[in-house]
């Protein structure tokens, strides 16, 4: 028997309030926890508005747990929602002065703008959803969303629905998402409501979702998943080995390996292989990967050595216990740029951990050996 499970994001709606709203990777963990709690090994995801980036990242990371993906009013970057800082600032003025009055119905549901009863309901919806402080914090986190680079890694059947005159998220956002996800179908309908169950074609939207989810579908390529790769190695290892001699160097490497394996377990990383004095590991959440690398750099120092680390998030090919693909090469090249005790990440990682509380310092655009183009590189501050 099919089931429908909904959940409010941590800190909003019916969920408990929290001191800090989580970033996308923590929300992804929450989604997985909800599925686990309900005994759902696999589900079709319906991601609406800001829920679309979360759903897309989950589908790319756990394709075996997502049988299909429906995205409504979606976007890959925040500028499709608020194109300028001034537009976002104007929304914050509304939040400070009128949140809870239902005035935002003018944008979210223009077809019901003159419906007094609906506006009262919408006002209650605003008040129950979050207080003004939480709304502003949520939107600040959302303003960092940029997932365009990972959308090609979504390999599950995908339907993207968008109304052509959507007053909240520009239709160009939906078109962009559909163009980036391989094989995605775009259903563009007339209308200006951002709320999918309102408007003249609400039934058409529901019918399209039902047909998409109950009809035939293609096989899911679960041998390719979105993952964060981490590479580490010991700085000046050759000189240190010569200084210590073989036996003492071997003991040092054993201690080094033990620390990294302990920290990997702490942050739910998966060791793929060791490369002499280095490690190659993967994570299903980029923020955990960054925090793990920072922790390793700190905990290794008492051994009298320093490591460097690099991380990148991208589509990886799962080959038994091994992992391959261009994302792996990028991660290795990023690590090679790092200095002693430095953790470098690609711009993709930085974008995906928005709202996590991690700090990054720009290191400029860098060429990566054997990788086309230039890549934005950042140093993680923990």
UniProtKB/TrEMBL annotation:
Gene3D superfamilies: alpha/beta hydrolase, Nucleotide cyclase. Keywords: Hydrolase. The keyword Hydrolase applies. CDD domains: CHD. Residues 228-335 form the Guanylate cyclase domain. It comes from the Bacteria. GO terms for molecular function: hydrolase activity. PROSITE patterns: GUANYLATE_CYCLASE_2 (PS50125). The keyword Cell membrane does not apply. InterPro entries: A/G_cyclase (IPR001054), AB_hydrolase (IPR050471), AB_hydrolase_1 (IPR000073), AB_hydrolase_fold (IPR029058), Nucleotide_cyclase (IPR029787). This is Alpha/beta fold hydrolase.
């Amino acid at each position: 028997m099919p089931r429908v499970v909904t959940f409010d994001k941590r800190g909003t709606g019916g969920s408990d309030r929290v001191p800090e709203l989580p970033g996308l990777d923590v929300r992804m963990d929450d989604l997985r926890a909800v599925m686990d709690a309900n005994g759902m090994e696999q589900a079709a995801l319906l991601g609406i508005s800001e829920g679309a980036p979360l759903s897309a990242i989950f589908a790319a990371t756990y394709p075996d747990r997502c049988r299909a993906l429906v995205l409504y009013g979606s976007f890959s970057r925040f500028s499709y929602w608020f194109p300028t800082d001034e537009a976002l600032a104007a929304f914050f003025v509304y939040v400070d002065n009128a949140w809870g009055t239902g005035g935002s119905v003018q944008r979210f549901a223009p077809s019901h703008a003159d419906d007094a009863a609906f506006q009262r309901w919408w006002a209650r919806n605003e008040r129950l959803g979050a207080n003004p402080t939480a709304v502003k914090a949520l939107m600040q986190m959302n303003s960092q969303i940029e997932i365009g680079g990972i959308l090609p890694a979504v390999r599950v059947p995908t339907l993207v629905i968008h109304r052509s005159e959507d007053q909240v998220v520009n239709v160009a956002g939906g078109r962009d998402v559909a163009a980036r996800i391989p094989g995605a179908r775009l259903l563009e309908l007339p209308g200006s409501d951002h709320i999918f169950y309102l408007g003249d074609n609400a039934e058409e939207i529901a019918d399209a979702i039902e047909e998409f989810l109950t009809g035939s579908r293609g096989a899911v390529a679960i041998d390719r998943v979105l993952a964060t790769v981490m590479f580490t190695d010991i700085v000046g290892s050759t000189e240190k080995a010569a200084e210590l001699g073989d036996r003492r160097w071997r003991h040092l490497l054993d201690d080094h390996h033990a620390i990294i394996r302990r920290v990997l377990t702490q942050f739910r990383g998966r060791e793929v292989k060791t490369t002499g004095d280095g490690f190659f590991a993967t994570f299903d959440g980029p923020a955990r990967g960054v925090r793990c690398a920072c922790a390793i750099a700190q905990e290794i120092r008492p051994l009298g050595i320093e490591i460097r680390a690099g991380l990148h998030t991208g589509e990886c090919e799962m080959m038994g216990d091994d992992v391959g693909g261009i994302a792996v090469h990028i991660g290795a090249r990023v690590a090679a740029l790092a200095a002693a005790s430095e953790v470098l990440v690609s711009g993709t990682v930085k974008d995906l951990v928005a709202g996590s509380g991690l700090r990054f310092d720009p290191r400029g655009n860098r060429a990566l050996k054997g990788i086309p183009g230039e890549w934005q590189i950042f140093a993680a501050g923990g």
